[in-house]
Specification:
The structure holds two protein chains of two kinds. By secondary structure, chain A is α/β, with parallel strands linked by helices. Chain A is built from seven helices and ten strands. Chain A folds into two domains: 145 residues, P-loop containing nucleotide triphosphate hydrolases (Rossmann fold, 3-Layer(aba) Sandwich); 66 residues, ABC transporter ATPase  like domain (ABC transporter ATPase like fold), CATH 1.20.1580. Chain A is globular, with a radius of gyration of 17 Å. The mean pLDDT of chain A is 89. Chain B has one domain: MetI-like (MetI-like fold), CATH 1.10.3720.10. In chain B, helix 2 packs across helix 4. Chain B starts with a helix and ends with a helix. The relative contact order of chain B is 0.14. Classes of the chains: A alpha/beta, B mainly alpha. The interface between A and B is medium-sized, with 22 and 16 residues.
């Protein structure tokens, strides 16, 4: 398995002297499903933000696909990963407009973009909601639309923050299958956080456990 | 005209201030808060000094022209629209920026989308600037000279008519001014209701 991320001497704090993450060394391989498991407030979401290049570590470095990501390359690196937040934000407009937005940013031709949008919406089971205003969705529906929005971009890395929250049993099963299928695609990887140990063990090739003090304790 | 020019300058600048972190940002916001309350006669006085014959821009011959009035109004409302734009964007949902970034927005796309998502608050900023500009009298009087048919604004006309003892005419102009302000605000309300 080739290396996807390599975190070296990472230290992250939102406020001075309040270290959220302290990771001396962490490697994550490509083409795998990796679960990050830990209690609430352990720093799982912060770790995902670092992996999505939304936050920069205060100390240490992150190598991505074998290269250290410079500030100039941040934008390109961001475009190859997609993060679905725990409480996703949907923009004004319809579900379709939300899902196609990232493809518009990339300048994907309209016809191809529309196909990718409908494929993603169908995969996540919200194909019928395309014309529905995003503001009218329930928590679970919004989660599925946000997942479709990420999938439509066909990212190299799919980052999911507590993706099973708000989902019923059938949706959990569907998402589990979707995660497994995605990671089977060539060069794709899934990293998800969960406080549910059983689900993490069941789905992931590797489970990284983070302590309450933001340190990797196993994995 | 002043509202248009001030908006073109203040909205992109306000967006940049809101979405970026830089040293002195807090001081800048404090300064903008102060400038929002700047008395109109102070703007008039400062610009009068710059535009008068001995001033730095005296050679341009702008004093007592419509351009001088536009410049004065523009300087007066620029901090208002700028500050309200910054506040509007900072008050938006904290998930907005990370969402746009993770969707792959570049800097320009980020600015456009942030403006689109906060458009009602931005429109309110513009309308507030417009309200300040049409109700202003000090700078317009000092820089325009209240020349009939040329630099006379509704507010300077009201001041003049009152001085002349034409109280009823001044009042009628005041009501007209209020009606314009009401119509602009009502237009904004309609846009918000339609969800544009």
């Amino acid at each position: 398995m080739s290396e996807l991320y390599c975190l070296d001497q990472i230290r992250f704090a939102y406020l001075k002297d309040q270290v959220v993450l302290d990771i001396p060394k962490l490697e994550i391989a490509t083409n795998e499903v990796t679960a990050i498991q830990g209690s609430n407030g352990a720093g799982k979401s912060t770790l995902l933000k670092l992996l999505a290049f939304l936050e920069r570590p205060r100390r240490g470095s992150i190598r991505y696909c074998g290269k250290k990501v410079s500030t100039a390359e941040l934008h390109l690196s961001r475009r190859s990963v997609s993060l679905v937040a725990q409480k996703p934000y949907l923009l004004r407009g319809t579900v379709f407009e939300n899902v196609i937005l990232g493809l518009k940013f990339r300048g994907v031709p309209t016809q191809l973009a529309e196909k990718q949008v409908f494929d993603a919406l169908t995969k996540t089971g919200v194909g019928a909601f395309a014309d529905k205003p995003a503001a009218h969705l329930s928590g679970g529906e919004a989660q599925k639309v946000a997942l479709a929005r990420a999938l439509a971009l066909q990212p190299k890395v799919l980052l999911l923050d507590e993706p099973f929250n708000h989902l019923d049993q059938a949706s959990i099963k569907n998402l589990s299958q979707l995660i497994a299928d995605f990671a089977h695609l060539d060069g794709r990887s899934v990293i998800f956080t969960s406080h549910d140990q059983v689900l993490a063990d069941l789905l992931a090739n590797r489970v990284i456990r983070i302590s309450a003090r933001g340190q990797v304790i196993s994995g | 005209m002043a509202v248009f020019v001030a908006s073109i300058l203040a909205i992109p600048l306000g967006t940049l201030v809101a979405i970026n972190e830089f040293p002195g940002k807090r001081f800048l916001q404090q300064l903008l808060n102060t400038l929002m309350a700047m008395p109109t006669v102070v703007v008039g006085l400062l610009l009068y000094g710059v535009l008068s014959r001995q001033g730095a821009l005296g050679d341009l011959g702008l004093l007592y022209t419509q351009w001088a009035v536009v410049l004065g109004e523009c300087l007066l409302i620029l901090p208002i629209i700028l500050n309200l734009t910054v506040t509007a964007i900072q008050s938006a949902d904290s998930r907005l920026l990370p969402t746009l970034l993770t969707l792959g927005a570049n800097h320009w796309q980020l600015i456009m989308m942030v403006l689109s998502e906060t458009r009602f608050a931005i429109m309110t900023a513009i309308v507030t600037g417009f309200g300040r500009a049409i109700s202003e009298v000090g700078a317009a009087m000092m820089l325009g000279g209240n020349i009939e048919g040329f630099t006379r604004t509704m507010t300077t006309a009201i001041a003049l008519e009152t001085n002349k003892g034409e109280f009823e005419f001044g009042l009628a102009l005041g009501i007209l001014l209020l009606t314009i302000a009401f119509l602009v605000n009502y237009g904004l309300l309609l846009l918000q209701r339609k969800g544009i």
